[in-house]
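Quarterly update from the structural biology core.
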Amino acid sequence: MIGAAAYFVRMDTKLEMGRRLNRTRKQRGMTLREVCERVPHLTESKLGNYERGYRMPDLDMLKALAVALGTHAAYLATFDDDPIDPRERAVLGCFRQADQRGKDAIMRTAELESRYGTTSAEDDCEPAKTAMN
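Predicted structure, tokenized:
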């Protein structure tokens, strides 16, 4: 009976991974063909099978799909429920490449900009407060 339970968990994972692939591709305004052009050895048929939850990509394919779709593999694989926006990824990359002065400036800017549209101090950018103290 344990094997049957594991099978259903795997099926749910395959289906959810497929939904995430499909949703992310459509949010980016990409066709199956456009994704396949960015990922070596990927066919429209194979990508369609992934999106419908019939098959699961291997890890190398999953990483390539994440890059092509501008997200991260952990989100597509259902390990993480927070898809990262390509702009967030760019800011993170800039932060990682900056020296300490640059990192401090990025954190101050993020903290100040996060206040726009908020109504209370609770809505402030928490990571910036932690890093600056």
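Helices lie at 2-27, 32-38, 44-51, 59-69, 73-76, 86-97, 100-114, 126-132.
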